[in-house]
Amino acid sequence: MEQIKHSHVDVRGLKLHVAEIGAGPKAVLFLHGFPEIWYSWRHQMIAVAEAGYRAIAIDFRGYGLSEQPAEPEKGGFMDLVDDVVALLDTLGIAKVFLVGKDFGGLLVHLVAVLHPSKVSGIVTLGTPFMLPGPNSDPTQYLPKGFYVSRWQEPGRAEADFGRFDVKTVIKNIYILFSGAELPIAGDEQEIMDLVDPSTPLPVWFSEKDLEVYASLYKNSGFKFALQVPYSATGKDLGITDAKVTAPALLIMGEKDYILKFPGLDGYIRSGQVKYFVPDLEVVFIEEGNHFIQEKLPEQVNELIIKFLNTHSN
After folding, report:
1. How many CA atoms, within 13 angstroms, populate the side-chain half-sphere of residue 231?
2. Confidence class of residue 44 from pLDDT cuts 50, 70 and 90?
3. Catalytic annotation on 63?
4. Active-site position among 17, 230, 256, 257
5. Model pTM?
């Protein structure tokens, strides 16, 4: 971990935290989800750098060590897409491999659709092609206690999280999202109440890892993270007939609760997803869960590096 270098880069008026390791003309940019952060890619960054690539991970605006936007409540997915493109220009990277997980995978698809000339290939973990908008918002098909629905309600997640310290919030989310079932609270419950306080951390997520996450979210808080992705999820971006022309790899964990989203499992396994991403390889990992790159880093690293080597010119 010591060999990963950290800096802040001016991007569209904000200083974004950038972690980087490796050198050379072939770059890989990692985009995190929630409750993740640049650190979520620690295993992949080192492996990709050792394979000869320049590995870069960022904290999105409003996350971790990156600066907060002036009006976080107005943030949307396109702010992050524009940040990614501007960052690549600032770093002098003409073309890049993008790797994203969770809502970071949504951003990977958006960049690939809107800026295809900048993308050599894409890898998404747990995120098949779905553009943000009313039709892809899962809350319309699930009970009102579904965690996304709860976190979209103004002030509700803040009040729920505010009962605990940041470390406990991150711990609870990691425990909850590691399961194979959708996190859905009852009428008299909040999402944090779904976790028994005596439940230990997953064996692949150490107390040291938790401390790193907690320190980063203590710095940024959760305000922008609850805006993007949650409050921004149902907003139409006005993109129609979108397709990804770059080669793509989708890595899914068989035990990822995302597969319980209505229709999602069939969408992937039937091949419907390839209508939007024609040059797509899909790999399911039996013991993989929502945090597949942290739980099973060696398997994920092998798949990513094979994909990079196959599609590097």
Report:
1. 18
2. very high
3. no
4. 230
5. 0.96
Q: Alpha-carbon distance 259 to 90, whole Å? A: 37
Set 102, 160, 209, 256: catalytic member: 102
Our answer to whether residue 230 is catalytic in this structure is yes
Active site residue 102: yes
Q: What is the largest CA-CA distance in the chain?
A: 56
**By the 8 A CB rule, do 58 and 17 touch?**
yes
Mean pLDDT of 162-173: 97
